[in-house]
Amino acid sequence: MRTIRIFTSILMLSSALAHSQSKINFEHGSWAAVLEKAKKETKPVYLDCYTTWCGPCKWMSKNVFTNDTVADFYNSQFVNVEMDMEKGEGLEIAKKYGIQAYPTLLYLNGDGKILHRSCGAAPSQLFISIGKTALDPSARLEFMSSKFESNKSNGAFMTSYISALEMGCQDYSAELSAYLGTQDEKDLISRTNWNMISKYVFDHSSREFKYLEDNQELFSKLYTADSVKNKIINVYSSAILSAVRKQDKATYKTLRDKIQASGTKGSEELILKADAEYYRMTDDWKNYAITTTELTDKYLQEDPMALNGSAWNFYENISDIAMLENAARWAKKSIDLYSMYANNDTYAAVLYKLGRKEEAKKAALKAIELAKISGDDYKETEELLNKIEALKSKN
């Protein structure tokens, strides 16, 4: 009996501990009530801006907000509130504070003035670090913003400031332009300015990028040839794909010719990607198929996601049998590299379009099996399976 009582006590204690696990205590009143409480307790507010469809938001809620150390820190230092930015007061809050990425982590005073902000999922230690920054009057974004005008030529300060703006998903183009405008052209090659250019400059027509292009050899000697070439190709990539999506044919052609003439490593792959996207945007499926085949066979053979993407686009848009056989080959290669629900589903779909009933059925059943393990929604695969069953078997 004594043993039973001890065992029962252990179970009760374990249960109590499980139910008393620390978690952030979020307020449930109105926004006005939250601010009033913050004033009364002389604490800043931590506002968790989320949406119901945001995966990283759910991850933080499950794995970070329930961490004991996190909970102890945030409960002692902040008045905490979580708010769906697409419902109720969240709609106005999102508009007022310019919330465009989720999760956004906002830190405010009792008057609703932003002290600091960050965005994106943060693991426990980083989340605490962000909170500590928000509590430090000499480190948070509010302070840095107030010092911008008097420090806009200070490379060290501006590096930290622009990084903080980026972490908060804030537009930093005006601040970057203001800083670079204080720098003589000959000073653009300094370590601080190279770091600025390599991280933040993406305008191919800017003075800074043109200087980098014109002085590639000098930059390469100081900061490695690969890093310089990668920066140049990344800027062109951003520019040409932007022109393609805007269907700005003149800019697209000008950039294409310039990239082709540059001979920069990676230029051929970039041109193929841009061409494929251009043909897709203009519904030129014949040239899209030809270009994507060259791109995928030359450059994407070790990337399971890219192979799967090319195969799925062919399934949706291409009817030519020879081209569809390429799609089947890519989907199979994707599976060989990393088998998952998505690429097995794609393989089944392509095989169905090719009329290869038994192979398509096998692939669809495999996709459903994997979906049950991973938790993916396989309703569309079941619908595809019904279509496959209706196919007449080939002789």
Short recap of the structure:
The chain is mainly α and 395 residues long. Helix content is 67%, strand content 6%. Strand 3 (104-108) and strand 4 form a beta hairpin.
Low-confidence stretches: 1-20
Strand order of the largest sheet: 2-1-3-4
Mean pLDDT: 92
Main beta-sheet strand count, sense and barrel state:
4 strands, mixed
Number of strands: 4
Indicate the radius of gyration in whole angstroms: 27 Å
- List the helices and strands in order: HHEHHEHEEHHHHHHHHHHHHHHHHH
Structural class: mainly alpha
C-alpha geometry = flat
> What separation lies between the terminal Cα atoms?
75 Å
What labels describe this entry?
4 strands, disordered N terminus, 395 residues
Structural features, described:
- The chain is mainly α.
- It contains 22 helices and four strands.
- A four-stranded mixed beta sheet has the order 2-1-3-4, with helices on both faces.
- A hairpin with a 5-residue loop joins β3 and β4.
- α13 crosses α14, α19 runs antiparallel to α20 and α21 runs antiparallel to α22.
